[in-house]
Amino acid sequence: METRMFFVRHGDSHHKRDGVVGGPEGCRGLTDEGRGQAALLGRRLAADIAPRGTAGTRGTGDMARAEPTAGSAAAGGRQGAGGRQGAKGREGAEGREGKGDAERAGGVRVAIYTSPLPRAVETAAAISAAVGRPAVPDCGLCTWHTPPGADGLKQVEFLERFGIEGGGLYRPFQRGNETWAEMVTRTSRTITELADRHRGQSVVLVGHAETVEISFNALGLMPVYRPFDLMVSPASITEWSTSEDPAQWPPPRWTLRRFNVKPEGD
Question: Cα separation of 125 and 213, whole Å?
Fold first, then answer.
């Protein structure tokens, strides 16, 4: 039974155009262009996920119920610029119930998760409207957990006020910021937990450029420091799949089916 993971970067956002740190307060959501991109994403994913012969149709009863991960509940307790408004999750057996409901109902099985930052939430809302399933906020899909007082600052001011020397994989580039290794661990745990919970299903994860990049660590088993860079476009789709058990040891082999694909207009 195939497990499909669709990684989506949010659409064009105000914070990117304004050059500010886009935390819970600094992020003003999508631009008009970004909202149009999100609508295209929704239609493309609805067609991609639907069974053959039913592309473009919507349903609810035959799809998986999404639940927040344990990582979301833990990280969701953080407030302000350094934290994200993650939903508290139900774990273990309760998380499995969503999968069980989908198995009994048959048909399309899909769950949607999103970073709780406004630009991702708005993108996920458009996808939810097209696919017919709600999106569950999960802090594990957030971008950098920046320090208190940084949210909403211009990037130049952020670097001037918080920048420190000697940053790297295990030491932050800015005082009080998350390290790259910490974000890789946090996001990878969320990705692998969701893959396990929704094995044999389709999962849409709406996040940020870093979310897509870290899929190469979590599923492609790349080292924390990759020997190459990735360019992830706004409103793009990256898809991984496996027919093996997502929680097996040694880890399963995943196939990268597409990377950074942008839906074309109607």
Answer: 22
